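hey can u run this one w/ nicotinamide-adenine-dinucleotide bound, need the structure tokens asap thx
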Amino acid sequence: MIQSMNLKKISKFMIKKINISTKDKKYSIEIESYSIKKKLENIISKNNNVIFIIDKKVFKTFKTVRNYQSQKYITISCSEKIKSFQHFSKLCNNILNLGVDRKSILVAIGGGTLGDLAGFVASTVLRGIELVLVPTTLLSQVDSSIGGKNGINTNYGKNLVGTFYQPKQVIIDPSILSTLPKREFLSGYAEIVKHSIIKDKRFFIWLNKNAKNLFNFNLKIITYAIYKSILIKKEYVLKDEKEKLQNRNSRAILNFGHTFGHALETYYNYNRKLTHGEAISIGMIIASTISQKLNYLSYKDLNEIKNHFISNNLPISDPRMFDKKIFKIISKDKKVVGDKINFVILKNIGNAFLKQNISLKNIQKIIK
Ligand SMILES: NC(=O)c1ccc[n+]([C@@H]2O[C@H](COP(=O)([O-])OP(=O)(O)OC[C@H]3O[C@@H](n4cnc5c(N)ncnc54)[C@H](O)[C@@H]3O)[C@@H](O)[C@H]2O)c1
Ligand SMILES: [Zn+2]
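ok here u go:
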């Protein structure tokens, strides 16, 4: 029922626009397949000084832009490694070398790692120049390009240096995902499912019915899933832009599944044995299991979540997930005070809340 109702609303070439209005910036997120060329040419025609930073994997798309050779551009091979002080400094110098002024616009075309690095650069070069994000992975389209967080990694942990800096525009072209490796696509899908689980049961049911079409690259279905996902993230970001709240509107709720997810990624040294999406999938199953053991979530809902993950190839376990070292890593998390942690718990599918001050020992006991 929900499936047919929503599909009717989806026009043949679905175009979606979401307006964002924060304290100091108003901008739009535009979702439209096959729109990159037109939109980049539009930016070039309206601005005198545009600098492009492009992920090498999507350079062939940039090459379709009229007179691309005469533009100022820098290409980068993207991975977690580029979120470093070294790459930050190199990129700042390259941009200064190309010639930049307060009216320049930085356009970042690539995955979440590029967006996080370029966002940090845009917010600091000349104390801030305009930023346009053109995310090209599913994860960056539904998550990292939304909300204004950026940053780089340090020896002390991931994303520990960065700023909050909203872009001037976000351009999402789902058709560019056609070249994305399956595993990366699934990694982004995990964040879409996360958004449905924390906030929108109807969306979760819709995903249950439409996930197969989404993985078969039905662009209308993909566009709708990206759109819904962004709307959910937007709600938390607008209520709590700088993650200061500790209530049901807290932006921290978006971290559902991420406590254990991040710990697993750290355990594996970010060597891509697990993608971010795979790690948080396992983290979401652990968080859902804890929610059930604490008598918030029903068995039925827990099983519904597990079944959805299994039938869409999202992992639900890892041999190391209960390793003592995982708890050691969690205890060093910047969000842990003493032995107490704030943990995102589920009441039902579509209804999560932030439970404060759960003791890590208690969590360890529950999981055993
Ligand atoms: N700022 C935030 O709010 C936020 C939120 C979530 C995640 N993140 C960050 O996002 C990063 C992960 O982003 P990601 O998953 O996009 O990783 P990524 O940027 O490393 O991209 C994954 C791989 O896909 C390639 N790629 C990009 N677009 C492609 C395309 N269209 N076709 C083929 N290959 C393509 C990249 O070159 C890379 O090899 C992490 O560093 C994470 O911390 C940030
Ligand atoms: Zn995530």
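The chain has a mean pLDDT of 93. anyway lmk if its weird
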